[in-house]
Amino acid sequence: MTYTRTEMMVVAGARALAGRRVCFVGIGLPNISVALAQRTVAPDIELIYESGVCGARPARLPLSIGDPCLVTGAVAAMSMVELFQYYLQGGLVDVGFLGAAQLDRHGNVNTTVIGDDYAHPKFRLPGSGGACDIAQNAGEVFVLMRQSRRSFVDRVDFVTSSGRGLSRVVTDLGEFAARDELTLVALHPGVTLDEVRAATGWEVRVSADLVTTPAPTDEELRLLREELDPEGVYLT
User: At 39, is the secondary structure helix, strand, or coil?
Assistant: First the structure.
């Protein structure tokens, strides 16, 4: 089956969750990746949402963080205060899965403003939500985002969440490991190193053991297209 680069990104993000037990996730592209992981490589993973839901197994992709489908079949529902204090700050979250508008070479995330003037930005974004807390308190942090020079920048316009806990970045072009700075460790099928360099606002560090990401399987694509996002809300 043919597939898009967005589908490849979502599949790679899902595969990265193999072996993880508790995942704190938000709405958007990370959410479709964790939903796919729950149906493939991590059937026992417990999903936590900042609205206060633990152990979520949503039958469909939620429309917002307050979507009632998150509660149906969940292990527990509680206040946000309890969730953040006892679960996240208590060290019970293995991985936080975030999106980003901008990312720099050190893994700092911006989801607040685009433009150097905070009071009068070019664009004002949704802000942190729980992302800053997740970035600081989860055992490790994954970021899933489309890659371009607008999103992979030499310096973010605003540090919403520091890159201190970042361990992996998955894009529509490849995968990066976070060490002292992001290092390209995998190229998706059909993507060249020159494409990655052209879509990055700094000189890309490349692993000596660079590999090619395995293509999506027919079953992974069926789950994405028929069960998780049949209307193409996230994947187009």
Answer: helix
